């Protein structure tokens, strides 16, 4: 057995980079009262059409179970950061939608978060390296998390507004 296999090195480096980045990002997110999954949920909603997603698509995008996503959205809803909206065409489906308060919370966090990303990640790469790296990450993501963009592309009916 070759313990110096480059496949082990690749996955080890990826895990180390992820853990290191998350530890650098946590103080800013924590100061805003957000966990990593809270932030991921809010930013995915903010970057989606109508700033909302079907709950099932949001669960698929984050890799959480439906019940796990329900608990996250319940917590964010109690804080006024998201709200649930009924689907106009399917009574069984519901959407999670970003609220004005949720947008404000993101707006407070994003400037420092983007500086942290620049300082410890994207700013270390030149434009061509970053483009290649992003293409590579998407290629891998599309294999290991094919639902990561569920509901984010193409025309979708807007949720019913109350």
Automatic annotation (TrEMBL):
SMART domains in the cross-refs: HTH_MARR
SUPFAM superfamilies listed in its UniProt record: Winged helix' DNA-binding domain
Domain annotation HTH marR-type: ranges: 1-142
GO function term, MF aspect, one: DNA-binding transcription factor activity
Gene3D superfamilies in the record: Winged helix-like DNA-binding domain superfamily/Winged helix DNA-binding domain (1.10.10.10)
GO BP term, pick one: response to stress
Pfam families reported for this sequence: MarR_2
Keyword entries, A-Z: DNA-binding
Domain of life: Bacteria
PANTHER family according to UniProt: MARR FAMILY REGULATORY PROTEIN, TRANSCRIPTIONAL REGULATOR, MARR FAMILY
Protein name: DNA-binding transcriptional regulator, MarR family
UniProt organism field: Nonomuraea solani
The organism's taxonomic lineage, starting at the top: Bacteria, Bacillati, Actinomycetota, Actinomycetes, Streptosporangiales
